[in-house]
User: Fold these one by one.
Assistant:
Number 1:
Amino acid sequence: MKFVFFFIYVPFVYSELHNFTTTYTEMNGQMVAEIPEISSVTVLDGQPIDFYDAEIKKLIPRQDWMKEFASGGRFKEYTEFRERLQRTNEISIHVLMERFNQTHGVHTYQRMYGCDWDDETGDSHGFDEHAYDGKNFISLDMKELRYIAYVPQGLPTTTKWNNNKTQLEFVNQYYRHDCVGWIHRLLTLRKTNLETKGILEVSLLQMDRSSPVLCHATGFYPSAVTITWLRNGQNYDEDVDLRETLPNEDGTFQKTSTLTVPPDEWEKDQFVCVVEHMGRTIRKILTECKMKNSAEWCFYGCVFYS
Ligand SMILES: *[C@@H]1O[C@H](CO)[C@@H](O)[C@H](O)[C@H]1NC(C)=O
Ligand SMILES: *[C@@H]1O[C@H](CO)[C@@H](O)[C@H](O)[C@H]1NC(C)=O
Ligand SMILES: *[C@@H]1O[C@H](CO)[C@@H](O)[C@H](O)[C@H]1NC(C)=O
C-alpha cells in the first residue's frame, strides 16, 4: 500500500466540454540577428499531450497514450495537421518589432489556437489569439470569419488575412471541422488506453484522530463510480459526504467519500468503504490506524493499512 497524494489534485470540475489548445511562444534574443526561442505546448482537457522541440524540429508526445499513438502510422497525419495549423496565420516576431519601432530588447509573441467541443450538445468553437509583449494583438472572430486587430499595428496583418478568401475558407475548415475531428480522435485514443490501463486504487485516510475518515478512490476510468459505506454489514449513509468526481493529470478520475463518525464508534462497530467500478468491487475495512512514523502523519495524514 503506498501513499496517495490526494492533496495535489487539479482543482477543476469535470465537464463535457473538451478543450484542445496549442500555446505557441516566440521570444527574440537581446541580439538583433539572434534566432528566436520557440516553445509550443498542446493541452487537451487540461493535460499536456505534446510539445514542439525547436532544436530537432519535432513534435514530442507527452502522455503514454500519445507516445503509443506517435509510434503508429497516423501520427504523421497529426503532425502535418499541426504544422499547417501553426503555419497558417503566423506572424514573425521581427515584423512585430518593426511595426512597434523596436530595434532591441526582449520581446514576446504568443499565440493560442485550437478549438473546444461540447460532446453533449455538439457545439464547437475555434480560436486563434495572438499577443505581443503580453497584450492582445489580433484575434479570430469565428462568427464573422475575420481577424480583428486590437491595436493599429495589427491592421496591416488583419487586412491582408481578411482579404484572402482562400485562406479564410481554409481557417474555417480547420477550426470548425478538422480541429474538432482531432479532438474526437484523440479522446478516443485516450479512452481506449485508460480503459485498459486505468488502475483503481482505494485507500482510507485521516488527517488526525478527530477529523473525518476519507475513503479515496483514484486512477479509475471511465468516471462512473459508486462509493458507499457499510456499518456492521448494513448500508450506512448518515454522516457521509460524497464529494465530486475530479480528473487526475493522466486522464483518470478520483473521488472521495468522507465519514464523520467519532473513532470510538468505528472502533466498536465495523465500518467498511465499498467502491464499485465497472463491475469490480473493492472493500476497505476501517481498523485501527497504523502509522509508519510521525512525519507521515504531518504530511499525509494517516493511511489505514487493511
Ligand atoms: C480552453 O483552454 C484555453 C487554455 O487553457 C483557455 O484559455 C480557454 O478559455 C479554454 N476554453 C474554454 C471554452 O474553456
Ligand atoms: C514608428 O516610427 C514611424 C516613423 O518614424 C512613426 O510614424 C510611427 O508612429 C512609429 N510607431 C510607433 C508605434 O511608435
Ligand atoms: C492566400 O492564402 C494562401 C494560403 O495561406 C496563400 O498560399 C496565398 O499566397 C495567399 N494569397 C494572397 C494574395 O496573399
Number 2:
Amino acid sequence: MIPFVFILTLSPIISAQCFVADPYNPRNLTHRNCDMITEQPKKNNLNAAIKNDTMFDITLTCNANDTICNKVKIAFDTAAQIISSTFILNSRISLNASFISFCNGVPNCRNAIVLGQAAPSSWILLQDDDNTQRLYPQALVKQFQFPTHPAYTSYDIFAMFNSDIPYWFASDPPIRPDQYDFLYVMLHELIHGLGFGSSWEEYLPGLVTPMPAINPLSSTKFDLYSSDPQANDKVKFYEWAFDKYMIFINGTKTSSLTIQLNKFFSGRSGTQADFDNNFDKSNQYSLARNMYLISQTPNSLAFMPQGSTNPSDSLILETSFRPFRQGSSISHVDAATYMNTSDFLMRAQARNGTTINMLTGNFSYGSGIGPILKKTMETMGYTSLDNPNPYRPSIIDPSTLTSSSNTIKPYRLRLDIGLIITIITTLVLYILPKEMA
Ligand SMILES: *[C@@H]1O[C@H](CO)[C@@H](O)[C@H](O)[C@H]1NC(C)=O
Ligand SMILES: *[C@@H]1O[C@H](CO)[C@@H](O)[C@H](O)[C@H]1NC(C)=O
Ligand SMILES: *[C@@H]1O[C@H](CO)[C@@H](O)[C@H](O)[C@H]1NC(C)=O
Ligand SMILES: *[C@@H]1O[C@H](CO)[C@@H](O)[C@H](O)[C@H]1NC(C)=O
Ligand SMILES: *[C@@H]1O[C@H](CO)[C@@H](O)[C@H](O)[C@H]1NC(C)=O
Ligand SMILES: *[C@@H]1O[C@H](CO)[C@@H](O)[C@H](O)[C@H]1NC(C)=O
Ligand SMILES: *[C@@H]1O[C@H](CO)[C@@H](O)[C@H](O)[C@H]1NC(C)=O
Ligand SMILES: *[C@@H]1O[C@H](CO)[C@@H](O)[C@H](O)[C@H]1NC(C)=O
Ligand SMILES: [Zn+2]
C-alpha cells in the first residue's frame, strides 16, 4: 500500500531557472515558470556567415515620422548584418526595440544625456564547468542548441533609443559635430543584448557585488509565484555568463571573490532579514567595500579571453568613473585604453561628430566589432569561423532540483528614488559632458 506516493509523483516538476527582466530596469529580474521542451537540434551552419541572412527579428515601436523610422530600420539591418557576418548565429535572435522620446518634452530632463539602453530581456540559470551556476542571456542560450531546454520567451533583447538625441543616419549629409551616429549606438546596444556586461554592480550603496538573489525553494513552504521573498529564503550572490572570465589585473578570477562573499551565507539562517541586518557587520562587507574602491581605480579589472594566460592579453574594463557609475562602470571597456583602437565600440561614452565608418576606416580591422571584443563574445560561447566549437555550459535538469538547491529568485532591491533613477539607466550608452582623454 502506497497511498501517498502518487500525490508526490503527480506534482509537476517546476523548472525554476528562468527569469525575465524589467525593460525599464534590466537588473530587476522576476522569476518565470518555464517548462522543459525538446526539439531537434539544427545543424551548426558554418556558411551562415557569408549568407545574407541576419538572423535577427526586430519589432520596432517608432514614435517619429516615416522618414526617420525608415532610417532607424536601415541602421538596424546594417547592425544585424555586422553581427551576423562576425559571428555564426544558428538560432534567430528577437529584439523588442523602441525609438521614443526619453524626455517627452520635459526641459533639462536628466535622461537627455542617455542615447539608449539595451539588455537581455530573458535569463536562464545554467551550470558552468567550474562548479558554479550563472545567469546566461537567452540570446546566447539559444545558440547552444540544447536538445532539451527551458521554453524561451518571445524576445531575447529589449532596446530603447532616445529620439531626443540629434542622430546621424547613413543617408544624411556629412555628420555635424553635435550629431551621434545611430548605427554606432545601435551596434553598441545590441552587443549588450547579446550578453556583454557584468553582474558586478552597486546594488547596495557603497558596495560592489554580483547580483543578490533569493532561492525560493530553500523554504519548505514556498510560493514560486509570490512577488515577495518568503521568510526562509536564502540570499546569495549570482554572477552572469560574462563574469566567469572576469579577473583582477593581477590575474586572480573575480569569481574567487564571489565565493568569499557567498561564505557569509553558510551556517546562517540565510533569511533576507539576516542579510539586511548583519551583512554590514561581516568580513564580507569589507570585501564588497574594497571591490567598490577597486571598481573606481583605473586598470584594475579585465576580461580574460579563452586561450590567454597573460593578463596583458585581456580586455581592460571601465573602472575609471569616480564615483562609481551604475550601468557604466565595469560593464564597458576602458575608455582611455581603447580610444584609438578598433575595439572602441564598448566604451561607455559615445562619440559625437564621427561615424562608426570613419572610426573603423582608421583601423585596418573592418567592422566596428574589434578583435578583442570579438574574442570576448567567442569566449562567452558565440560561434565564429575562428571559434567553431565554443565553450558550452549545461542545462540544469529540473528533475535534479531539490528543495534546497539550484533555483533563485531575485532579491528585491530597496533603493531610494535617486538610486532607482540611476539604476534605470543600466547598460546604457551615455553622452558625457566632456570628452575624456
Ligand atoms: C522590479 O520589477 C517588478 C516586477 O516587474 C516591479 O513591480 C518593481 O517595481 C520593480 N522594481 C524596481 C526597483 O524597478
Ligand atoms: C541583403 O538583405 C537586405 C535586406 O534584408 C537587402 O536590402 C539586400 O539587398 C540584400 N543583399 C544581397 C546581396 O542580397
Ligand atoms: C521628420 O522628422 C524630422 C525630425 O523631426 C524632420 O526634420 C523632417 O522634416 C520630418 N520629415 C517629414 C517628411 O515630415
Ligand atoms: C516591447 O516593449 C515595450 C516596453 O516594455 C512594450 O510596451 C511593448 O508592448 C513591447 N512590444 C511588443 C510587441 O511586445
Ligand atoms: C562633440 O561636441 C562637442 C561639444 O558638445 C564639441 O566641442 C566637439 O568638437 C564635438 N566633437 C566632434 C568630433 O565634433
Ligand atoms: C589580486 O588582487 C585582488 C584584488 O586586489 C586580491 O584580492 C588578490 O588577493 C590578488 N591575488 C594575488 C595572487 O595577489
Ligand atoms: C587618439 O588620437 C587622437 C587623434 O588622432 C589624438 O589626438 C589623441 O591624443 C589620441 N589619444 C590617445 C589616448 O592615444
Ligand atoms: C582618422 O584619421 C585621420 C587621419 O589620420 C584623422 O584626421 C582623423 O581625426 C581620424 N578620425 C578619427 C575619428 O579618429
Ligand atoms: Zn553600454
